Amino acid sequence: MLKIGLTGGIGAGKSTVSEILAAHGAVIVDADKIAREVVAPGEPLLALLAQRFGEDIVAADGGLDRAQLAAAAFVDEESTAALNALMHPAIRDRTTEHFAKHSDAEVVVHDVALLVENSMTSAYHLNLLVDVPAELRLERLMSARGMARDDAEARIARQAGDEERYAVCDVIIDNAESVRQTQDRVARLVEDRILPFAANLEAQRRAERGPAELVDPVGQDWPIQAQRIIDKLHHGLGKQFRIDHIGSTAVPGLAAKDVIDLQLLVSDLDMARELAPRLALLGYPGHDGSDNLGEGRLESKRFHANTDPGRAVNLHVRTEASVGAVFAREFVQLLRSDDCERERYAQLKRTLANDHAGEGQSESYAEAKEPYFLTMRRRLVPGSFD
Q1: Could you tell me if 146 and 283 lie in one domain?
Q2: Max CA pair span of the chain
Q3: Which positions in this protein are listed as binding ATP (predicted)?
Q4: Is position 96 annotated in a ligand binding site?
């Protein structure tokens, strides 16, 4: 199952995109509907709320009187905390039930208004943000919902800002134009990324990649993307494992292939193999591999590559004290601090990328850099040559 988080600020049109995704076959788990489900007449939570906040919160029809609950629950911090302590577990458990009910689905979308505010994005393979400029959202709230400007502005201000959302969401869906244009954008997203991602995840195969082309670093947000991926890995594996952003995309100002390289450190290779099934579920199938240390020496590791066709990621799983792990970390630090070495490496990359341009040339491009890396290993990890 490909798990997708869907969010957007109030007035952005998240519900419109949710409906479009459903029309393309995605199962929608709607957080707002679940919040209403758990307080429906006869639900255990409703009785617990009445016990804590008084029978007045139950309406004449046996449902929840939301105004009465708000009046009772938001009078002080203790009451608000009590409300959250009752509501959140019930919503969480009901959400889990919905996901379990659709465990055979290819794509499940969790539609959550406060996905970012509640720090939930790391739980999904992919996060979609429905994006509309704040001023247009304000106009929509005033015209379509009849809100007063002050009320609409206050509601927008209480939610996460654009930059906060951009930092943690993987795909930005522009919904500032017509519904038809949004439908076309979402259809392309489904065809080009979501369905291939889901198929790769099910088959536990890495996504196809293009030729070894260098990308101008200007305007790239590789470190932000890397942190999103690291957060997802930590959510799925636990935070006891150190994960570093390595490789050229970790060096500001350095041209690079549009591939995020990460390094996950483990105590031994047995642990690396134990993590393999969990990594595959997170979208990182892998196999036994090795680092070429030069002079005919190889060092064992695990190599995982991701299933998302929209974002290439290499995950190197190495033991903590391995030569490969130390060199990867030290090499990035060198390039960040030494302008001359960074430029020398950049020139080498440009030359080799031209020599090995074209489909299927990524491996030969990587192999062609090995003599340079051997020299750097002697400089940065000299003890490994004793």
Answers
A1: no
A2: 83
A3: 11-16
A4: no
Query: Tens-of-pLDDT digits for all 386 residues of the chain?
Result: 999 999 998 878 899 999 999 999 999 999 999 999 999 999 999 999 999 999 999 998 899 999 999 999 988 899 999 999 999 999 999 999 999 999 999 999 999 999 999 999 999 999 999 998 888 888 888 877 878 888 877 877 877 888 899 999 999 999 998 999 999 999 999 999 999 999 999 999 999 987 778 999 999 999 999 999 999 999 999 999 999 999 999 999 999 999 999 999 999 999 999 999 999 999 999 999 999 998 888 999 999 999 999 999 999 999 999 999 999 999 999 999 999 999 999 999 988 888 777 655 567 777 888 899 999 999 999 988 87
Ligand-binding annotation for 23, yes or no, is no
Q: What is the DSSP letter of 325?
A: H
**Model-level pTM greater than 0.85?**
yes
Residue 95 known to bind ligand: no
Distances (CA, A) of 243 to 126, 307, 330: 19, 19, 15
Distance CA 231, CA 245 (A): 12
Residue 178 annotated as binding site: no
The response to whether 257 counts as a known ligand-binding position is: no
- Tokens matching residue 8: 């957007």
50 shares its domain with 172:
yes
How does DSSP assign 168-231, residue by residue? H-SEEEE-SS-HHHHHHHHHHHIIIIIHHHHHHHHHT-PPP------B--TT--HHHHHHHHHH
My answer on whether 121 and 83 are in the same domain is yes
Tokens standing for residue 169: 């969401």
Query: Contact, 283 vs 308, CB < 8 A?
Result: yes
Tell me: do 154 and 254 sit in the same domain. Answer: no
Q: Assess whether 292 and 375 both reside in one domain.
A: yes
Range of the domain at 82: 2-203
Same domain (yes/no): 246, 374: yes
Question: Which of 203, 232, 249 is a domain's end point?
Answer: 203
